[in-house]
Here is the input.
Amino acid sequence: MAQNLTESSHDRQNILNNRYALQQAEQRMEPGGTFYDGELVFTKQQVMTLFEIGDATIERYLASHDDELKSNGYQVLRGIKLKEFKDLAFGTLINEGTKTSVLGIFSFRAVLNLGMLLTESEPARILRSHLLDIVLDVMAEKSGGHTKYINQRDENFLLASFQEDNYRQLFTDALDNYVEGNKWKYGNFTNLIYQSIFKENATEYKKILKLAKKDKIRETMYSEVLTLIASFESGIAHEFEASSKRKGGKLTQREAKELISGFESHPLFKPLITDARTKMASRDLCFRDALHEKLEAYIQAVPEADFEKFLGEKSRSLEEQLSDPETLAVFKRLKDR
Here is the structure.
C-alpha cells in the first residue's frame, strides 16, 4: 500500500471503503464525538481540536476536497436537522455559536478522510501511521495471512476456475488440430492471450505477484479474469477451427496470432477487457500490495462490495468451500453434464 496517503485518492478511499478497518480504528482510537442519525459525528470545532489545526485550515481542505469529504460523510446541517443535533449535543456546541443557523459535521469516516489529507498536522500524521497498521492487521486476520490467494475467497472463484479449465482444454485441442508448430506454441499462445487481456506475459505476472516457480498463475487470478480468459479461449478455438477449414489445412502461427490480435480490438471484448484490467490492477494493489505498472492507468479505489467479497462473512478459504456439501454437489452436477 502506498505510504503517502496525502497524495493518493484511491489509497485513501481503499481504507475508507474497508469497513473492517474502520471498525478497528474506531475501537482503538476512542475519538469521542456524538451519535447522530445512527452514526458517530464530530463538529468542526472538535475536529480542529483533534488535529490541532485552525478554522482556516479546515475551510481550505473543505474547499479543495469538497466532493471527496462529502462522499465520505461530511454534511452541513440546517433547520430541523440542526435543531435535532443541538438537542442531542447537550450544550457541547458552545464553541460553535449557539445562534448558528448552519453547522458542518463530520462522520468518523470523514474525520479519517481529513486526517489522511492534512499535511500540516502532527496528530494527522500519527493517525495515518496507525491506519496503515490497522489495515495490515485486518488484512492478515481476515485472509489468514495469505493474500497471495485472496482471490480464492470469492465464492465465484471455484466455478470460474472449473469452467476456465474446460475451455482451456478446447483451446489446447484447437492448437493441436488447427495450428502448425511445436510444443512451445502452447506457452506462446497462452502468453498472447494474457498480453491481450492484461498486457503481461506469464513471467511478468509471476514477478509482480512474487510467485514461486511452482505456483500456478491461474490459481491466483480473480474469477472475472478467469471468465474472460475462458471466453477468449472458447472464441479463439472456434476461430482456429473455422479458419483452418476455410483454408483447407492448418494455420501458420502468424495467421493464428493475427486472429488473437483481432479479439483484443473486437468491440464485444473491449468493455470486458477494461473491466478485467481495472479489477486486477486495483485489487492487487489494495489486497496484495502488487503494482501492475502496465495497468497503472486502470487503478481505481476498490469498492466496498469487494471488501465484503474477499474479507466479509461470505468469503471463505478454498479449503472451507471444498468441504461444503452444497458446493461439492454443484460441481458434481457440472461434471455429469
Observations:
- The chain has two domains: 9-143, 147-335.
- DSSP finds 17 helices and four strands in the chain.
- Residues 9-143 form one domain.
- Residues 333-337 have pLDDT under 50 and may be disordered.
